[in-house]
């Protein structure tokens, strides 16, 4: 009878249930007719079904549960019998006539339950008798279930503090003794099970044993529920007796499971007060037992307990929990030389979580744990094991989450040392965790020293640690991580300009190692951060920052120039040009004309030498015009030089419409509302006229190449510029020129070759509406508009 | 005398680890409470006599392990349940979210004859914690869920302070009683007269 198929098992279970039901049927009839003799006969026959050896624990449990339910009815019947005058002692004798031992013992336990309730004999006498009698079953599976039945029916009858079965002072002790004895016997049956049957079925047996584990563990649950088991009794009797059984059984499965049970079923306070006893058992377990998981669960439990409230923390201090756990972990790691590295890290991570919870102020403990971890992983290659790296990330993340402050982590000397052992991928992952933590908690990092340490910590994101890795990295991911570095740079801030300047220097040092792929992400935030500092300084009195060493806008502009120059090798001329223009504007605000001029020069050089794409030219020229328009510090000469160049570039764009638009935009360079120095109506008109000429050329080209007129939109755009300057009172812009322009637009639109262009129609209509609107508004401007008779 | 079969009502308490299943049972049966967390292993029951409409019933209340690793033998004890109590902790969202899983798991494993009308009772426990300030599951949300599952009766309790525990179990008992979850009627194929039943035992003669 080897390797029974699942089908066969189903068959046997059905047969068992059928037999059980049939006998239960007769038992019910006997119960209904108060026939004790038949009730005993059929219940014994019903219970015989539990004598099977053919079922796996799961199936046997199903059968057992059915018998269990039937026995409850029998129990009620016994109770009624006694109330009808039948002696419980007689019943107790009577059931022992059952022919087979297993049914006899089930019946005995059932009557025993009623016996205890009747209080005709001390509960402990009955319990002692029952637990002894159960020795009669030495078959592991049947014995375990029988004893679990005993445990269940006696569960609410154990003499305990305040229970109705409470007797003398020593009765709680008797209850404990009873449960411990049952536990010990069950554990023996359970452990012995592995040695029964052929060796080839060992695996199946182990699986079955594992399924049966809760029957044994439940005794510990029962012990934990006895109120009379106070700390004293737990410490002196329960724990030593249980541990003795655990250690001596020398069985891997039992030891691992029961240690877990002890930790889970007994309260935290007890564990703290008996920590040494519990921990001392660990090295005595079989070498194959997964002690790290046992310890990790213990620490997890205690951490949760510590987190439940500050009032419990003194308990931890009083028993020196940290020292004991630390010591125990050290011993376990030492004893288990072959423990995989992820196990080691798991243990340290659990201890760290515990320590953060119990001793948040003891950074030295935290550092000590990290140090121990470094010691263990050093001498090995970089960690590549998935499980281990996951654990390290958890280990390193824990202090960040606890303190919500990178500062604290930066104080831990072993923190960066642990990171050293991460492979490039994990190092980056950890760096990301750190940055996210800073973002989330809005941590302010305000000294250059800390910035230096931080960038050293997150170097995985700052530079290539491993060339191969970069190749396989997804571009989106790369962008994402570099963007987070950029955000981080923006977060660095010190109120002290000196320190801020140092921070900028430090960041520059680090990001310059990042190479061409990273600089376009990291340079801009640093430039903006520098310009922010410049603007801050600009508000200050010169005399305050008079001495040599102090930070001045000029000095910052120097470094900013160098930083932008670092982009030249990449090259990203558009980006650099934009940054130069930003700098020029900042220099403008600081009244540093030569500096601003220099920045413009740099921008122009880039434009001339590097920007060759015609689309890019269009974007850049508008940036240049826009920025230049806002500059007010330039003297006439400098300004002329720069505007001259800008108009020149505009007229040289490749596409005529682009030319036209850039040229009319240049008109703004000559008329600034807020500066009466810059009001040159002649040149405004020159720009607009030039733009008109180009627009004409566009029209003609369209006629020549396609035989139809081009879009008149350009003319309408120029008309709007005319109106703008007219409104501003530029005398060179006359009513006639506006009327002529409107006339020109209308004829272009109504011409034979004109394609219909709803967008242009709408644009013109709204422009005319604007004129009307200004007329209606009246006032000085309204009067001027009145002159335009459309 | 009432039918012996109906005199016993079986109630199963389910819910995540640490929501207070054991505490609810202990409060109801023994009027005792302990603040200490002690995991339950396997399944365990206590009984309590209840009077209902002049009849005496025994309530068999099964407390279960919330942690899966302490439920190694499976859930054969669900069989024949008359009512199922689903417990969650009003301070832990996940324990509420999991109610659905517990309910479905129960219906699959216990396979009652009329799953649509099988009586459940939902209990939101630990309402006393932090004066209700740490609460994350609102009564409204819980009641809405109960309504959506066929108007499951809902109670908010504190096993610690005994609030509403008695009331909840009264409804549990009442619903268990009228659940009508009859055991399958068994009729033997043949009726042996006088002869001892055949022995099909195998294995040793113990």
TrEMBL record, chain A:
GO terms for cellular component: cytosol; endosome membrane; Golgi apparatus; late endosome; retromer, cargo-selective complex. GO terms for biological process: intracellular protein transport; retrograde transport, endosome to Golgi. InterPro entries: ARM-type_fold, Vps35, Vps35_C. It is found in: Cytoplasm; Endosome membrane; Golgi apparatus, trans-Golgi network membrane; Prevacuolar compartment membrane. Transmembrane segments: none annotated. It is a peripheral membrane protein. Keywords: Cytoplasm, Endosome, Golgi apparatus, Membrane, Protein transport, Transport. Belongs to the VPS35 family. PANTHER family: VACUOLAR PROTEIN SORTING-ASSOCIATED PROTEIN 35, VACUOLAR SORTING PROTEIN 35. Plays a role in vesicular protein sorting. This is Vacuolar protein sorting-associated protein 35. The lineage of its organism: Eukaryota, Viridiplantae, Streptophyta, Embryophyta, Tracheophyta.
UniProtKB/TrEMBL annotation, chain B:
One of its GO terms (biological process) is protein transport. One of its GO terms (cellular component) is vacuolar membrane. It is found in: Endomembrane system. CDD domains: Rab7. It comes from the Eukaryota. GO terms for molecular function: GTP binding; GTPase activity. It is a lipid-anchor. The keyword Nucleus does not apply. Keywords: GTP-binding, Lipoprotein, Membrane, Methylation, Nucleotide-binding, Prenylation, Protein transport, Transport. Belongs to the small GTPase superfamily. Rab family. PANTHER family: RAB FAMILY (PTHR47981), RAS-RELATED PROTEIN RABG3F (PTHR47981:SF4). This is Ras-related protein Rab7.
């Amino acid at each position: 009878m080897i390797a029974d198929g699942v089908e066969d098992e189903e068959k046997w279970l059905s047969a068992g249930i059928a037999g059980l039901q049939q006998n239960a049927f007769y038992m019910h009839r006997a119960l209904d007719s108060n026939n004790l003799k038949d009730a005993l006969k059929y219940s014994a026959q019903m219970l015989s079904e539990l004598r099977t050896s053919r079922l796996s624990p799961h199936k046997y449990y199903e059968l057992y549960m059915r018998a269990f339910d039937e026995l409850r009815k029998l129990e009620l019947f016994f109770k009624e019998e006694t109330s009808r005058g039948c002696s419980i002692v007689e019943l107790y004798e009577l059931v022992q006539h059952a022919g087979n031992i297993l049914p006899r013992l089930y019946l005995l336990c059932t009557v025993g339950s009623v016996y205890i309730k009747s209080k005709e004999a001390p509960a402990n006498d009955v319990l002692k008798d029952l637990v002894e009698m159960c020795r009669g079953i030495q078959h592991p599976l049947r014995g375990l279930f029988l004893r679990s039945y005993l445990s269940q029916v006696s569960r609410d009858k154990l003499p305990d503090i305040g229970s109705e079965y409470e007797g003398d002072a020593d009765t709680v002790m008797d209850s404990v003794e009873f449960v411990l004895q049952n536990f010990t016997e069950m554990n023996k049956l359970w452990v012995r099970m592995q040695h029964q049957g052929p060796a080839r079925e060992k695996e199946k047996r182990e699986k079955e044993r594992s399924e049966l584990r809760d029957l044994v563990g439940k005794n510990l649950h029962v012990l934990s529920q006895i109120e009379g088991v106070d700390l004293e009794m737990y410490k002196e009797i329960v724990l030593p007796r249980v541990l003795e059984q655990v250690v001596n059984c020398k069985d891997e499965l039992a030891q691992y499971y029961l240690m877990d049970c002890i930790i889970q079923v007994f309260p935290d306070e007890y564990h703290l007060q008996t920590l040494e006893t519990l921990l001392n058992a660990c090295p005595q377990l079989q070498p194959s037992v997964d002690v790290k998981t046992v310890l990790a669960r213990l620490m997890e439990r205690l951490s949760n307990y510590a987190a439940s409230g500050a009032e419990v923390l003194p308990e931890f201090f009083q028993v020196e929990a940290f020292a004991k756990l630390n010591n125990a972990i050290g011993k376990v790691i030492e004893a288990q030389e072959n423990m995989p590295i992820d196990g080691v890290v798991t243990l340290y991570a659990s201890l760290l979580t515990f320590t953060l919870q119990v001793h948040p102020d003891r950074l030295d403990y935290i550092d000590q744990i990290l140090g121990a971890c470094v010691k263990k992983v050093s001498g090995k290659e970089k960690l590549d094991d998935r499980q281990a790296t996951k654990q390290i990330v958890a280990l390193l993340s824990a202090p960040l989450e606890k303190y919500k402050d990178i500062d604290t982590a930066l104080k831990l000397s072993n923190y960066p040392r642990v990171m050293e052992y991460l492979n490039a991928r994990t190092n980056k992952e950890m760096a990301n965790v750190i940055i996210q933590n800073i973002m989330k908690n809005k941590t302010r990092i305000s000294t250059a020293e800390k910035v230096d340490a931080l960038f050293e910590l997150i170097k995985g994101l700052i530079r290539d640690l491993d060339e191969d890795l970069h190749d396989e990295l997804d571009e989106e991911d790369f962008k994402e991580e570099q963007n987070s570095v950029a955000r981080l740079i923006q977060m660095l801030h010190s109120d002290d300009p000196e320190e801020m300047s140092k921070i900028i220097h430090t960041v520059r040092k680090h990001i310059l190692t990042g190479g061409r792929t990273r600089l376009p992400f990291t340079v801009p935030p640093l430039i903006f951060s520098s310009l922010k500092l410049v603007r801050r300084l600009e508000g200050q009195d010169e005399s305050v920052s008079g001495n040599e060493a102090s930070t001045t806008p000029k000095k910052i502009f120097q470094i900013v120039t160098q930083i932008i120059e670092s982009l030249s090798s990449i090259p990203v001329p558009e980006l650099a040009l934009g940054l130069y223009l930003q700098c020029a504007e900042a220099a403008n605000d600081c009244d540093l004309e030569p500096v601003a001029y220099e920045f413009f020069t740099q921008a122009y050089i880039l434009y001339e030498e590097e920007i060759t794409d015609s689309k890019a030219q269009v974007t850049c020229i508008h940036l240049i015009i826009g920025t230049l328009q806002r500059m007010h510090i330039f003297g006439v000469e400098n300004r002329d030089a720069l505007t001259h160049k800008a108009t020149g570039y505009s007229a040289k764009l490749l596409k005529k419409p682009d030319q036209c638009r850039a040229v009319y935009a240049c008109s703004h360079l000559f008329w600034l509302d807020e500066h009466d120095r810059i009001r040159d109506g002649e040149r405004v008109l020159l720009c607009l006229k030039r733009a008109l000429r180009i627009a004409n050329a566009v029209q003609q080209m369209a006629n020549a190449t396609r035989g139809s007129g081009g879009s008149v939109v350009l003319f309408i755009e120029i008309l709007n510029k005319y109106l703008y300057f007219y409104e501003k009172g530029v005398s060179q812009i006359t009513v006639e020129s506006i009327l002529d322009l409107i006339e020109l637009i209308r004829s272009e639109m109504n011409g034979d070759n004109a394609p219909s262009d709803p967008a242009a129609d709408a644009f013109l209509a709204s422009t005319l509406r604007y004129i009307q609107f200004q007329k209606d508004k009246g006032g000085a401007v309204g009067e001027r508009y009145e002159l335009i008779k459309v | 005398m009432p039918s012996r079969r109906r005199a016993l009502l079986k109630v199963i308490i389910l819910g995540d680890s640490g929501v207070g299943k054991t505490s609810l049972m202990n409060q109801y049966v023994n009027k005792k409470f302990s603040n200490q967390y002690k995991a339950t292993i396997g399944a365990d029951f206590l009984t309590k006599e209840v009077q209902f409409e002049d009849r005496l019933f025994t309530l068999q209340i099964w407390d279960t392990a919330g942690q899966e690793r302490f439920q190694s033998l499976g859930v054969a004890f669900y069989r024949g349940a008359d009512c199922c109590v689903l417990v969650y902790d009003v301070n832990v969202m996940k324990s509420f979210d999991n109610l659905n899983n517990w309910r479905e798991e129960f219906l699959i494993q216990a396979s009652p004859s009329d799953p649509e009308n099988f009586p459940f009772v939902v209990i939101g426990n630990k309402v006393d914690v932090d004066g209700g300030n740490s609460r994350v599951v609102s009564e409204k949300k819980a009641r809405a869920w109960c309504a959506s599952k066929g108007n499951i009766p809902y109670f908010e309790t504190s096993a610690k302070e005994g609030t509403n525990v008695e009331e909840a179990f009264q409804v549990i008992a009442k619903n268990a009683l009228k659940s009508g979850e009859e055991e399958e009627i068994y009729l033997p194929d043949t009726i042996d007269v006088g002869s001892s039943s055949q022995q099909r035992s195998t294995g040793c003669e113990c």
